[in-house]
Write a structure and sequence with these properties.
The chain has 8 helices and 7 strands; from the N terminus they run βαβαβαβααββαβαα. By secondary structure, it is α/β, with parallel strands linked by helices. The protein has 2 domains: about 5-185, Flavodoxin domain (Rossmann fold, 3-Layer(aba) Sandwich), CATH 3.40.50; about 195-225, no CATH class.
């Protein structure tokens, strides 16, 4: 029986869009006869050398490796980078395993993912010898509301596009075919390019950054290099 592992690459843990995607995929795997287990949280397995080695042994046991992670500064979170570096050092053990990254970002345009992050993951797969079966780039991943603990089934129309793409991805795993590289806009970009909406989004984000800075003792008005 074909088996797959879901690598959950978000530092946020269970309350993240990445985990919401993983949980939906886990259900799809079970429905389609693909053996799997609960999402494998990378943040719990890259803290020590011993845990890293356990992760590498675990990965050897699966035919399909699905990485679900957010986009941080146009590339991978540190925990994902550490995992990729460890796998690269032991590349001979993972040759020909199928690899499929699913990356989401807060910005609505998926090109923020496809321009830099996806090529990096493709280079990683080529270096290790993994079989690249495609990728899925999700713009406006924050709209899935995983940080609020919601599942994809709870997000209504926002999650519908994503669920359909994930269903097709799993179908490609079952038929052993390539999914291809897909970039998906969860929201219509016309909404974000509206002048009033742009101002609202800027105001909302600035307010959020100020609250976060205040909570953590920072000062957003500081200008340490102005003199």
């Amino acid at each position: 029986m074909t088996n797959a592992i879901l690598l959950m690459g978000s530092p946020r843990g269970r309350k993240s869009s990445s985990n919401a995607i993983c949980l939906f995929l886990q259900e799809l795997f079970e429905k389609n006869g693909i053996e799997s287990q609960e999402p494998f949280f990378l943040r719990n397995h890259v803290t020590t050398e011993e845990k890293m080695n356990d992760m590498l042994v675990t990965l050897e046991q699966f035919d399909i490796i699905v990485l679900v992670a957010p986009l941080y500064d146009d590339t991978s979170p540190a925990i994902v980078v550490k995992a990729m570096e460890a796998v690269s050092r032991n590349s001979s053990k993972y040759v020909n395993k199928r690899f499929f990254p699913i990356i989401n970002c807060g910005l609505p345009e998926p090109f923020h993912i496809t321009e830099v992050a996806i090529p990096i993951y493709h280079k990683f797969a080529t270096t290790v010898g993994l079989q690249w079966v495609g990728s899925l780039a999700l713009g406006a991943g924050e709209g899935l509301q995983g940080k609020d603990g919601k599942l994809l089934n709870d997000t209504g129309g926002f999650g519908e596009k994503v669920m359909k793409s994930l269903e097709r991805a799993v179908e490609s795993f079952v038929t052993n075919s390539e999914f291809g590289d897909e970039a998906l806009e969860i929201f219509s970009l016309k909404i974000f390019y509206n002048r009033i909406m742009r101002k609202f989004m800027v105001w909302t984000n600035n307010r959020g950054w100020r609250k976060m800075a205040q909570k953590n003792g920072g000062d957003v008005a500081a200008r340490p290099y102005s003199q």
